[in-house]
Specification:
Elements lengths: L8 H4 L3 E5 L6 E5 L4 E3 L6 E3 L12 H5 L1 H12 L2
Antiparallel strand pairs: 1-2, 3-4
Length: about 80
């Protein structure tokens, strides 16, 4: 992995984002590397709005690692 890319900082060191479940309104924790998470209250599946360098950077796979790259790339390609 590369150490200097600022665009991948949230993927190498995940950040926490709080979202409200659109179904029941309960607050849900979503990390920057999560593709989706289920609401612990109602089970609704909440998707992360990931927009990152993995969609355009030729070094993304080397930078964040193949496993995380494939997980995020597959999610981005389904949009």
């Amino acid at each position: 992995m590369l150490d200097r890319c600022p665009g991948a900082a949230d993927m190498r060191t995940p950040t926490l984002k709080l979202k409200n479940c659109p179904e029941c309104g309960r607050e849900v924790e979503l990390f920057s590397v999560d593709v989706n998470v289920k609401c612990s209250n109602c089970g609704f599946l909440i998707y992360n709005d990931i927009e990152s360098c993995i969609q355009w950077c030729q070094y993304a796979k080397e930078c964040i690692g193949e496993e995380l790259y494939n997980k995020l790339k597959n999610k981005a390609d389904k949009k």
